[in-house]
Amino acid sequence: MVQPPSLLWFRRDLRLTNNPALQAALRDGKPIMPVFILDEESDGHRRLGRASRWWLGQSLTELDTAIAQLGGRLILRTGPTLATLRELVLETGACMIHFNRRYDPPGSNLDRQIIEALRGDGLAVEDHAPNYLHEPWQLQTNQGDFCKVFTPFWRRLSQHVGPPATHRAPRAPHAWPACENWPSSGAIEHFQYKPAWTENFAHHWQPGEAGARHRLQHFLEDGIDDYPSKRDYPAIEGTSRLSPHLAWGEISVHEAWHSAEPAKCSGAVAFRRELAWRDFNMHLYFHYPDLLRQPWRENFRKFPFRKSAAMLKAWQQGRTGFPLVDAAMRELWQTGWMHNRMRMVTASFLIKDQLIDWQQGETWFWDTLVDADPAQNGANWQWVAGCGFDAAPFFRIFNPVIQSVKFDPQGDYIRRWIPELAALSAKEIHQPWAVPEDRLAATNIQLDRTYPRPILDHAKARQTALAAFRQVSGRSSDAAEPDLFS
C-alpha cells in the first residue's frame, strides 16, 4: 500500500538546514513532497520586484539541485495558493501539510484562511516558526503594548533569544523520504527570471543555501572584528552582505545570531543589533498593517510632497549630479543591492531634498533590491522620512557632499560606479561642479554632457523641506532644528 505523503510547502525559507517545517516533516516519517508555489494572484501577495524574481529563480535552482541529490524532487507550481495546494492534495493523496508561517499582515491573514480551509477539507496542517528571532506577540512593553522604540525592544530581545535547535539537513544520497508518485512540475527555467539589466548580478551574488553559508563564514572569519569601524564605508567590504540570504531564508537567523558570540569577536554585539533591527521592523509591520500605505505619524499624511516624474527619474537613474547619491543608485541598478549608509543617504535625498513621497522610493527599492522585504522596506523608509516609529527626526537631512567626504574620503566608491569622474582627485570628486573649467576639460568631463550638474541646491532644498515640515507639524520656527549633516 502506498503511504500518503506530507506536503512540505516552501516560501521564504529556501534551505534544508535548520528548517523547522522540514524537521517536523522528517519526524512524521512519511514520504515528503517539497513544493514551491509562485502566487501573484491571491489577495495578500504583493507582486515580487524584478530583482527579487531574479534571486528567487537562482535560489530555487539551487534548492531543486540539493533536493535532487538526496533523491527527491522540488515541485514547482504557479497560481493561487489555496487552489494549488488543493490540486496537489487531490493529485497525490497527501494527508499532511507543513510550512513555516509568515508575519506580514497580508501573508498571515492568507495563512489563516488556508489553514482553516484545508483543515475543513480534513487535512492535518501544521505551521512552524519562520526565520526570525522572536514571535511578534512575545515582546511587550511594561504597559502590555507592542514595542515601538528600538532600544527597549533590543534589551528584551537580547534576553529572549535562547540556544537554537540545530538540525542538520539530510546528507546521504537517497536520504530524502521520497514519494512513490510525483505530480507534474513547472520547468525550473520558467522560474528563472532574467531581465537584461540583471545580467551582472551573478558576478556579485551566489544565491542559495551554499552561498549563504559561504557568505556567513567569510564574514565571521574576515569581517566581524572590524564591523563596528568599517560598516559605514561603502568602498570597502565592511558589512556581512547577508541581507538577501536572510530575506529568502537561505540561512537561519538563529544560526547567524549564535555564530557571532560576543566572547569570540569584538563586532558581535553590533552585528546582532543589525539582526535585531530586522526583527524590530517585522515586529512593527505585524502590529501596524498600514506600514506600507500610511505614515505612522498622522501629521505627515498631509505633507506637501511634489509630483515630478523628471526628478524621480534622475534619482532612479543616478543622474542627480551629486556623485555619492548617483554612485549608490547605480550600485543598486547594477548589483541589486546598496550599502546600508547609502540607503539612508539616497532616501534622505529623495524625500527631503527632492520632496518626493517616500512611498515612491519604497516602490523603486522593492523592484530593484534582491533583499526586498516589505517590513524592512516600509519601516526603513518611514524611519528616514521621520514619519514612522522610533524614526530619525525629519530635520536630520543628510548633506550629500559632507557624507561623501566623510564616508568615501578618497572617492573610491564614486569612481567604481561613476567611471566618468574617475580622473578627478579625492578633493575634487565630491563636487565636480566646483572644479575649474580648465581642470574639467583636462579630464574630459563636460558637465551636463558626460555628467550632470546638480539638479538642485542642497542648502535651499533643506530650507524648503524644513518649511514644509513646520507646515505639517505646527512649529513656528526651526530654532530647535539643528543643521544635522552626520
TrEMBL record:
Annotated EC: 4.1.99.3
Domain Photolyase/cryptochrome alpha/beta: 4-133
EC supergroup of this enzyme: lyase
Keywords: Chromophore, FAD, Flavoprotein, Lyase
Domain of life the protein comes from: Bacteria
Keyword Flavoprotein appears in the UniProt entry: yes
GO molecular function terms listed in the Swiss-Prot or TrEMBL record: deoxyribodipyrimidine photo-lyase activity
PANTHER family: CRYPTOCHROME, CRYPTOCHROME CIRCADIAN CLOCK 5 ISOFORM X1
Family to which this protein belongs: Belongs to the DNA photolyase family.
Protein name according to UniProt: Deoxyribodipyrimidine photo-lyase
Organism encoding this protein: Dongia soli
